[in-house]
Design brief:
about 725 residues; mainly alpha; 3 domains; four-stranded antiparallel β-sheet
């Protein structure tokens, strides 16, 4: 069992690691040769030039200005200096709101920590229960936890009251944060400059038509059903090609040959009906019309002519546009089963790691190591450092697996893929990192008992185990949240890769720009890891408050580091307007409910019978609060107010009456393969836009909406 000295050893190791990373970063960022690695965002914006161009030979590689080294920590205040509105303009709303998650952690846990240390720590420390028990091994950390309060003690009233105080404080902070971010999103959308997705909806499951191509059928349907607002459409193509070859002088002839082949292949695809997806990006004359179409049902058959807001062009995941509705349903069912098995069967290696991390387990498996691990220094490292680092290694490959599963499920935008992968990752962390680490503590037998017992006994079993695992989670926080975050700012892998490419592959300035990898926020894996810290803080705030300062250090340090990265490094792949925030809110609420249920289970084993009826009200209040926030704010993240759309349209018509919207939208949703080519999009029927008669190739006569079988009847056929 880890003691305060073990925790101190782990803290020393991780603090030294973090300090080493920070000092290395502070020095490396000052070197001219590394400028593109640590400030790529400004190069991409075109506001920074390489400091190596106008310097002498030695100065190109090494910063010889010794005064700059005296200010090597000035990146910290610089990261905090940019105000939030400027940060949104610079990096986007997604990045700014992501940073607010760390700020939310500070707002939530600093007051909770102060109260917990003022009230609960003295109550626990003076309980003296553990010292009166014979043959019981415990540490100083256990004396600071609820374990040190005797069964049936009146002291549990302090824990009960604090549970209510912490829950209501969480409600208050979450409500105001949700309100603030909903306002930020609506303001961002209302004040944002013109973007193609504001006028465009994604249409999927276009029904086949024997007489018309997909493009003609789409145009016919929307000219009939949206005659006053339809403008144009772009139909998707299969993603069959890779990136265009770079223009390097001595490869000119080869590139010309490949370019000719590529042009021939493109021409074949654009003229091949089988290469056209049954999906289209349909653009309208106004934002108001696009909002109406995106938020309404187009056909009496809810599986056809499916419309939704189009993601911005760089957010589109082209490979999933053509998946049929029924196939998507089957895929998601299969992936749900796969996620279940992946999540719960991964507890086996987690249990093995936990067993090995225990000294008795190591001596049993490797008896020849007993003389070594009995040494005090080795013992402290094993118990204070090994569990956290072993768990961290296990989680490295998981995000890639979960992202592949989300792609198989058929989602059509990168932002949604990230959010779905994050949901899977959160479930995995909740079951394996949190519950798994608690339940499988030292042996597989505990896992067996956990699986066999009834569901209503699980909160009690887990609740009893929670105080005993505080030291493990403290070490994990230090490994992942201290040294791990410091390693993030060092950017060691991008640094090495840039210099390797710059030495062996770069021949032109364009090559050098491509070798500069700014990266982006990995929301799919980063946000669920943040949620683990919220969960740990909420669970241990009443049970073992000593864990809270470690969490505060994580949130504060991460806020500083990632704000710096967003300002200077990351270049986001897309902008969703903070559409992920409802997921963040919901997962924090989930963590709060779990904390309340586990506290009920723990208190029931402590003879505090009077507390159970009072604690039952907390999960009920929490669920009610979540539903209230969902009804009050979530609409801002899934729908666009028609009033705001009309205001923007009216203002635009007044300020830019002659703007050519059709030309602006012409190539917005062309597949990236065709971006550099002249591509003919089907023209809308300007002369027919105000005429009920819509031309088709179905018959020689002109058909009206009531006469158009394929435009109405077949498109709405329920198949019954």
């Amino acid at each position: 069992m880890a003691t305060l000295s073990d925790i101190g050893a782990a803290a020393t190791i991780n603090l030294l690691s973090a300090i080493t990373f920070l000092v290395a970063f502070a020095i490396l960022r000052l070197q001219p040769v590394n400028d593109r690695v640590y400030f790529p965002k400004w190069y991409l914006k075109g506001t920074r030039t390489s400091p190596t161009h106008a310097r002498a030979s030695v100065s190109k590689f090494v910063n010889l200005d010794y005064t700059s080294y005296l200010r090597f920590l000035n990146w910290m205040p610089a990261a905090l200096r940019m105000p939030e509105p400027e940060l949104i303009n610079h990096a986007g709303l997604d990045s700014a709101v992501y940073i607010r998650i760390y700020l939310l952690g500070l707002k939530l846990f600093i007051p909770i920590t102060i109260l917990a240390f003022a009230v609960l720590v003295p109550v626990n420390w003076t309980g003296n229960t553990l010292e009166r028990l014979d043959d019981l091994t415990f540490s100083d950390i256990d004396k600071l936890s609820i374990s040190n309060v005797g069964s049936g003690s009146e002291r549990f009233w302090a824990h009960l009251v604090m549970a209510y105080v912490f829950s209501f404080w969480t409600f208050y902070v979450l409500y105001h944060e949700y309100k603030r971010i909903a306002y930020m999103r609506l303001h961002f959308l209302a004040s944002e400059q013109r973007r193609p997705d504001q006028y465009t909806v994604l249409v999927r499951n276009v029904p086949p038509d024997p007489d018309e191509s997909v493009s003609e059928h789409v145009e016919h349907f929307f000219c009939v059903n949206h005659p006053d607002h339809y403008l144009t459409h772009q139909t998707g193509f299969w993603a069959l090609w890779g990136k265009t070859v770079d223009a390097i002088d001595y490869y000119t002839a080869e590139i010309e040959k490949l370019s000719n082949k590529e042009a021939i292949e493109r021409e074949r695809v654009t003229s091949d009906p089988k290469a056209i997806m049954p999906a289209a990006f349909v653009s309208f004359r106004t934002r108001w019309a696009a909002a109406v179409c995106a938020q309404t049902q187009q056909s009496s058959n809810p599986t056809l002519w499916l419309t939704e807001w189009a993601p911005e062009p760089r957010d589109v995941y082209w490979s999933n546009l053509a998946i049929p509705f029924v196939e998507i349903t089957i895929r998601r069912l299969i992936m749900a089963v796969a996620v279940f098995f992946l999540t719960f069967f991964f507890m086996i290696p987690i249990a093995f790691v936990q067993s090995i991390a225990n000294l008795d387990g190591i001596e049993k498996v490797f008896p020849f190591l007993k003389p070594l691990i009995e040494k005090e220094v080795v013992k402290s490292v094993i118990q204070g450092f090994l569990p956290g680092i072993a768990l961290k290694i296990f989680l490295i490959v998981l995000p890639t697996i979960l992202m592949t599963m989300s792609k198989i499920e058929g989602y059509t935008s990168l932002s949604v893929l990230d959010r779905r992968s994050a949901a899977k990752y959160y479930l995995f962390i909740l079951v394996n990192v949190f519950l798994g680490s608690i339940v499988t503590g030292t042996a597989f037998q505990q896992l067996h008992n956990f699986i066999k017992q009834s569901a209503n006994e699980i909160p009690t079993t887990v609740g009893v185990s929670i105080p005993m695992k505080a030291t493990f989670f403290i070490t994990y926080i230090m490994v992942d949240g201290w040294a791990g975050v410091a390693g993030e700012i060092l950017r060691l892998v991008p640094l090495v890769m840039f210099h390797l490419k710059n030495t062996f592959l770069v021949k032109t300035e364009r090559d050098r720009e491509q070798a500069m990898d700014p990266g982006s926020l990995d929301f799919a894996s980063a946000e669920p890891r943040i949620q683990l810290y919220f969960l740990l803080g909420l669970v241990y705030s009443v049970v073992t408050p000593i864990l809270l300062p470690f969490i505060i250090v994580f949130f504060g340090f991460s806020y500083l580091v990632f704000r710096h990265q967003i300002i200077n490094v990351y270049n986001q792949k897309y902008e969703s307007g903070a559409a992920f925030w409802p997921d963040v809110h919901r997962r924090i609420i989930t963590g709060l409910v779990i904390a309340q249920l586990l506290l009920m289970g723990l208190m029931s084993t402590k003879g505090a019978k009077q507390s159970t009826p009072l604690l039952v009200a907390l999960p009920v209040l929490t669920v009610w609060f979540h539903k209230f926030c969902k009804g009050r704010f979530e609409a801002a993240f899934v729908r666009f107010p028609l009033q705001d759309a009309m205001v923007k349209d009216t203002l635009e018509r007044a300020t830019e009456p002659h703007f050519n919207l059709r030309s602006y939208l012409r190539d917005a949703y062309i597949h990236p393969v065709f971006k550099d080519e002249e591509f003919e999009t089907p023209p809308a029927i300007d002369e027919e836009e105000n005429n009920l008669l819509v031309p088709t190739k179905r018959t020689s006569r002109r058909s009206t909406p009531s006469q158009s079988k394929m435009g109405s009847d077949r498109g709405s056929d329920l198949g019954v």
